[in-house]
Write a structure and sequence with these properties.
- A hairpin with a 2-residue loop joins strand 1 and strand 2.
- Helix content is 65%, strand content 10%.
- Helix 1 crosses helix 4 and helix 2 packs across helix 3.
Length: 79
């Protein structure tokens, strides 16, 4: 699967807007994937590679942005 930078940015922005710290993975998938199962698979894959890159961290109740994740959002907003 190719990396989809628009999807990565959508996930980063969603996590940034989430006010409760970590967001459950299921909620991320439901919010962005809705009823599109192909999109859901892409979201799951992109969450994994975002973790690999250090943009998200796993906490007991879900995923949260890391410092690098916040930097990526800011960089995208400046572009």
């Amino acid at each position: 699967m190719k990396r989809d930078n628009d999807l990565i940015l959508d996930i980063l922005k969603l996590l940034e807007q989430h006010n409760n710290g970590a967001m459950p993975r299921y909620d991320i998938i439901e919010t962005l994937g809705k009823d599109n199962y192909t999109q859901r698979d892409a979201i799951i894959h992109h969450l994994s590679i975002m973790y690999d890159r250090g943009f998200v961290a796993v906490e007991h109740d879900g995923l949260r942005l890391t410092w690098d994740g916040h930097d990526a959002v800011e960089k995208a907003q400046r572009a």
